[in-house]
């Protein structure tokens, strides 16, 4: 039976993906780092994060989900919920 989940959710891989979108070192994306306040995120970067995550994890985010993507742990939790709902 083929694996239907293209990428398993891994915190460190998620950290690297977010760091890549924000053009920062993964070490700068800590559990406490806020994407807007600490990394200078704006609506364009938010859209880039959403697109990258939707492609990588084959999920779709609702507008209500997007408001929760403010830190690494919150983003992980939203993704975990999305991926769990697919299973």
UniProtKB/TrEMBL annotation:
Keywords: Phosphopantetheine, Phosphoprotein
Name the record gives this protein: Acyl carrier protein
Domain Carrier: 5-83
Domain of life: Bacteria
Gene3D superfamilies for the chain: ACP-like
Organism of this sequence: Streptomyces javensis
């Amino acid at each position: 039976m083929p694996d239907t989940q293209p990428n398993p959710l891994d915190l460190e891989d998620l950290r690297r993906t977010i760091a890549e979108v924000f053009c920062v070192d993964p070490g700068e994306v800590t559990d406490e780092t806020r994407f807007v306040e600490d990394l200078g995120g704006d609506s364009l970067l938010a859209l880039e994060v959403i697109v990258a995550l939707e492609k990588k994890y084959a999920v779709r985010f609702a507008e209500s989900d997007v408001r929760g993507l403010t830190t690494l742990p919150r983003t992980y939790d939203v993704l975990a919920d999305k991926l769990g709902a697919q299973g």
